[in-house]
Amino acid sequence: MAQALRGLVGEGRASEVAVAVLDAVSLLATSGVPVAWLRRLTRDQAVFGEAVAGLVRQGLLTESRDQNTVSTHRLLGRAIRAGRSRQRERRAAVEGALRVLAQTCPAGHDDPRALDAISLTAAGVVAVEHQPHSAPLTETEEFMSVALRLAFAANQLGDHHCAIALAPVVDQCRVLLGPDHPDTLASRNNLAYAYVSSGNLSRAIPLYLQTLADRERVLGTDHPETLSSRNNLAYGYLSFGDLARAIPLYRQTLEGLERVLGPDHHDTLTARNNLAYAYESSGDFADAIPLYQRTLADRQRVAGAEHPDTLTARGNLAAAYESAGELGRAITLYQQTLPVMERVLDPAHLDTLTISNNLAVAYQSTGDLGRAIPLYQRVLSDRRRVFGPDHPETLTASSHLAEAYGSIGDLRLAIGLHQETLSEMVRVLGADHPSTLSTRQLLADEYRGAGELSRAIALYQEVLADQVRVLGPRHLDTLITRAHLARAYQSAGDLARAFPLYREVLADLDEVAGVNDPHTLAVRAELAGAYRWAGELPRAIELCEQLLSTRELLQGPDHPDTLAARSNLALAYRAAGDHRRAIELYEQNLPDLTRVLGADHPETLAARHHPLGCLLYTSDAADE
User: What does each C-alpha distance from 219 to 159, 211, 213, 216, 268 come to in angstroms?
Assistant: First the structure.
């Protein structure tokens, strides 16, 4: 072909490059190939420009209007492929197309700015997979390698839909490499992770189970890859809210890694962090925080104080402190970690933005919305700039900012931003994605807070029906929505529907999450409040006393939830006319609220200005 093109597109090297360009275009996407990709075929860009210009001039290539992509007519493409009569020519064409794809696939997977390149390359790979005439290209191990790298990078950067679009690679790996090949098992694991992250747990868990069984059979129970599969299955169960299955698997994984790789290996330290997170998710801070602390100490000793893994471990410990109600320790650790991350990683790095968001959440928890909201706004702006407006991380940041607006009582702004975010989530993630469903529930919360109870109840009911269909009736998100619907019924005065629903949710949470799970305790507090609101004071007092005792035991006397439980019990005593015990609790609680949350925190101010607070001050004045 080079001989035929000589003189048409240029002499010497230009004709050779023209052949390589036509060969690559005939095997790659018929819809068009970016010119920037084809430049990888030669280092001499002047010759490349001469070759492409000649091909366009002769009508062998067609440029897009913006001149960014080129394509060839399907009949010409067929003729080019048929004209490769020699095996050497066919192999050269495949190698050229592979070189284009391989050099286009980003090498790193921790830079959000690579997302556009990953998405574009993945679209090209998916298009090629559906072209029968591209079989000489797609049926190569090199093509499989490119596709697997793309899927892994897409998952790491949060573009799980892109990773799922590459799902046919899993079947191709099985056919080309065999069902037990390491790359086949890795591709199945990667696809399972994409399904979990996109909320499709019914597809994820069977893939994780199959991969674990195959690795145990092929590699043995103690092989690092097998242990990694066990960890991944635990993650799948954790994502589904099945902590009873997740925690034992995480324990087994950690024990195996400590035995096989040693206590200081990177994978061992990661497994210890994962077990700590599972404990934290179950509300077991007594086990979670020491594990986080040990992991941080080991990371610092093994990798150094400013290694990215060490900084992540510091952020995880801070998050655990926050979950445990130790907000002062959490904020201090976040504030210490954030500037180091900005210097070592980059202000736009995913981990840096995560720490910034978590610090904003901690500020909000202390009632410091003056610092929380500007930080939420900065995080949203940064995520839009780095990830783009459609990325799941950006949409999550938008949802957090909307919640913060609701916290300061700006319900108009909160509802507007939630509606905008929800619309984008439906378009980008789909109506059934767990994040979309959660955002719809948050919008219903804002409607309830604004007193639009009919809209809130209708939306809760819609979300609940979809969660039952998508996630199942006993998924944690489903149970939380049912509890919020019960509260909306209560606010509307419909106690005939509120009480049975509260009790049903509580019974399910006791069984699914455990009696001491934070979500279970929160719903028990809601039910106690409903009893008090309805005048069923003996039931309210009994439940409030149980809650206070449990929270003091599990979370300590200074946890914000413990302080809230003490306030609620005081309110129940007061409603029952037992002012002595009510005032005793307030005398204990108000100084603790001031010390733990600060004098200006909304909870402290509410306690100080509550009628019981007035009773407290009257009692003090009488004593003087």
Answer: 31, 11, 10, 6, 19
Query: What ranges make up the beta strands (E) of 108-233?
Result: none
DSSP 517: S
Output the DSSP codes for 428-459.
HT-TTSHHHHHHHHHHHHHHHHTT-HHHHHHH
Q: Cα separation of 241 and 223, whole Å?
A: 27
Predicted structure pTM score: 0.77
- Please check whether residue 383 is in contact with residue 391, taking contact to mean a CB–CB distance below 8 angstroms: yes
> What is the separation of C-alpha 482 from the centre of its chain, rounded to a whole number of angstroms?
23
Q: Which of 109, 192, 120 is nearest to 158 (CA)?
A: 109
Sign of CA dihedral 252, 257, 263, 265: negative
Question: What would the two tokens of residue 587 be?
Answer: 């005398």
Strand order in the sheet with 69-71: 33-34, 69-71, 62-63
Residue with tokens 């035995």: 259
d(CA 209, CA 23) in angstroms, rounded, equals 42
3-state DSSP call for residue 62? strand
**pLDDT score of 610:** 64
Q: Average pLDDT of 572-577? A: 92
By DSSP bridging, strand 33-34 and strand 62-63 are unpaired
Structure-token pair, residue 139: 């049926």
d(C-alpha 89, C-alpha 19), whole Å? 10
Rounded percentage of the chain residues whose pLDDT exceeds 70: 93
Calpha distance 259→116 (Å, rounded): 41
**Are the CB atoms for 157 and 112 separated by under 8 Å?**
yes
Residue linked to tokens 């999550």: 396
> Cβ atoms within 10 A of the Cβ of 518, count?
19
